Amino acid sequence: MPFPHHSSREREPGDRGRGFGRAQAAAVGVTVTTYRRLLREAADLSRQDILRAGETVGARLDPELVDELEGIAVGSGQDVRELLAINARTELLAGGSECSLLGRLELDGGWLAQTWDWHPALAAATVVWTVEAGDRWWQTVTEAGVLAKLGHNDRGVACGLNFLTSSADGGLDGTPIHILLRQVLEGCGSGAEARELLARARTSASSCITVATAGSADLFAAELSPGGARFVEPDRDGWLVHTNHFLSTPRAGEDTMPATHPGTLDRFVRLARAARMGAGVPQVLAQHGEVAEPVCRHGDPPGTPWAEQRATLAATWCRPAWRSLRVAAGPPCRAVFEPVSAPVSLGARG
Fold this sequence. Notes:
Blueprint (H helix, E strand, L loop, with lengths): L4 E4 L4 H11 L1 H19 L3 H12 L4 H14 L3 H7 L2 H4 L8 E6 L2 E10 L7 E8 L2 E8 L6 E4 L3 E7 L13 H11 L3 H10 L6 E7 L5 E7 L2 E5 L6 E4 L19 H15 L4 H5 L25 E9 L4 E5 L9 E2 L6 H4 L1
Parallel strand pairs: 1-4
Antiparallel strand pairs: 2-3, 2-11, 3-12, 4-5, 5-6, 6-7, 7-8, 8-9, 9-10, 12-13, 13-14
Helix pairs in contact: 1-4, 3-5, 7-8
């Protein structure tokens, strides 16, 4: 697989972080330098602003997660405050129109597939990370130094992500979105547990976390905003499609996308149409067409400012009932979905 695949077997969070940081020091460095520039150009934050934001985030995180990030910082030679801030990058950067997701509820459970669209410089920071902790494991595709993003676990729970935007977004109160993704992967063993976690979550930025599970055969999208969580269920035919606008009804006084991002509506319609016509997952996610925002993105118009450049860095496809994660390391029109090896465990055979 073109992306590095790092396996962590250390039991203590600090040891796990140091091992990851040493092995992925170059990738962590790309993460830090890229976000330092993104936060400066897109959010007008100086490095001192970023460090202060990191201190604020660290004071509210689970101490074990802070220990892990401190380990990554020591192992890679970075400032832990910067890594803490980067784990709240959704909160520090305004939401955008990136990532396209589809899922299906079938007899053996739900599955998820999506593109991950973000700044092209971060392709060099992307890693597949497998964490084994006792008799449990989880896997994620993320930027080195960010504690989780897209992935699945041994108990048959998978998660995906889409950015959203609402008028209530702002600040660093609540739980960062990427920390919520880590909590789903590390701590949830069923759809019910994931629903409970996300229903009580308090966030300062809007995003949609979609969860598919085996066993209980669950599939849902949790649309998160500072006003709370709203849940979206699959259509009657079992499909669930999400791009970058709210599908649930906005709360009174809370403006939401897509008013200024018509591209998200176009991608939503084309994903749903292609899926229902029987196209395979790779073909659905590889759609281009003569549109402003293709599902599979590469090649920004000439003159696009650096901070606004976007590309499809990867695509993922999780089938929780099979404990299966496949990753396309690049735009799915060019890259092949390849399986990620998972630890052998009772959960993986269940």
